[in-house]
Design the sequence.
């Protein structure tokens, strides 16, 4: 039987947000590869070898997956959320681009998942109802100046902004700097949402304003959504507010 | 039994891309509401009333859904892709914001889906592997000048750009104008993908360059992805190329 490689998204956490396509691929795979907490989300079964690795080792993980598929194994690499969004898909294609030329003919598929951004948005309403962007706030792989430039242009464009990887122990100051920059570009009343561990037992979602947003609220499992000047709150007597961005944002920021 | 309203994403087309969460909600609903082609994707069953409407009637559809939920019905509004992305979720919250104050206390949930953008990206590789944005090219609800401004700023920011609603009979020239504008901002060799009807029987995906992209290739079911200056092709002797954007885009456009 010839090998294949599937790069699959497990969604934000809840099993009911894993697509049947991914469930089927997991059932057929011989080898499961990923960052330990994501591999732990997949049930063990006979015939499925598990290869766990640390967070920073995307490159080695991608090369292992490609080598195993080339040997005829049925390999699934798992990411949280969608694998194409700041996750393993790009790492695998980088490895293909720079690696053994025969890897280009492997059967490689990307299986989309529910991204953190859309799962978080769904929990609070429809904050991404108008044009939006996603920025990885990690400066491990790009210069901080480029991130600042993108934040500024995104705010000037009137995009709602989803910030991935906002804060970690190794990157403690980046989100604070980003919020300070955005306060110069956007009204201070713009809604900001911190959405952590969406759809699993530790889920915590806080809606505040750009003025009151505190960077330290975030951690590695938090997605931060910054509204545009058009984003609105709907107060609810019996619960937390709905947040949405109208489809018709006629006013330039 | 008290009513509820779920605004659900059916994903791009294939049943195996519908989340179990959405499948469960469809099984419990009493009323199914949506644009006719999306309602047609849900199997008929006894006890589920179907309310179909035309594409342009989002506002009436949202108000009908809210009225029925307020009457104690279990209502599901379906969108293609993700309901929070240029789809029904924002329309419903607009209706809540402007409608009967009692609607604010309804049990309203958004159930995320696999968006057209991520489904299309998955089919060709990892074009969204770096920072990206999504722009609705329809000028029905925002001035064309704002769309041009956003395209220009997005290109200057180095975002990969996903264009929703690129072309329709009522909006025949917008995508051509957008491509002409982007040719002034980006290298002409930037990869461009036209992804139509992803994951269903009529799926058609073409990868070209910004120089050679022809607007008329698109229709209402097409998502257009515009690469950044960093987006790369991996040629494959045996098939269409992989398209990806490396995680480390150190160079400002």
Sequence:
């Amino acid at each position: 039987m010839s090998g294949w490689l599937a790069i699959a998204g497990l969604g934000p956490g809840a099993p009911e947000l894993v697509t049947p396509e991914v469930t089927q691929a997991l059932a057929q795979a011989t080898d499961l590869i990923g960052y330990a907490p994501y591999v732990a989300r997949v049930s063990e079964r006979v015939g499925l070898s598990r290869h766990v690795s640390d967070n920073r080792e995307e490159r080695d993980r991608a090369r292992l997956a490609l080598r195993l598929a080339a040997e005829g194994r049925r390999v699934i690499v798992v990411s949280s959320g969608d694998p194409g969004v700041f996750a393993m898909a790009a790492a695998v294609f980088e490895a293909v681009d720079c690696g053994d030329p025969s890897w280009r003919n492997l059967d490689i598929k990307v299986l989309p998942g529910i991204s953190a951004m859309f799962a978080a948005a769904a929990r609070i309403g429809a904050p991404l109802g108008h044009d939006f962007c996603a920025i990885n706030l990690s400066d491990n792989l790009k210069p901080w100046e480029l991130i600042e430039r993108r934040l500024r242009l995104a705010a000037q464009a009137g995009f709602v902004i989803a910030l991935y990887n906002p804060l970690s122990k190794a990157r403690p100051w980046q989100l604070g700097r980003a919020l300070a920059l955005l306060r110069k570009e956007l009204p201070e009343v713009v809604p900001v949402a911190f959405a952590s561990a969406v759809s699993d037992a530790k889920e915590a979602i806080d809606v505040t304003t750009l003025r009151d947003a505190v960077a330290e609220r975030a951690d590695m499992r938090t997605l931060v959504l910054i509204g545009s000047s058009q984003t609105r709150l709907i107060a609810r007597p019996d619960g937390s507010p709905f947040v949405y961005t109208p489809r018709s944002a006629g006013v330039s920021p």
Observations:
- The radius of gyration of chain A is 20 Å.
- The longest helix of chain A spans residues 144-157.
- Chain A has seven helices and 13 strands.
- Chain A touches chain B through 80 residues (CB under 8 Å).
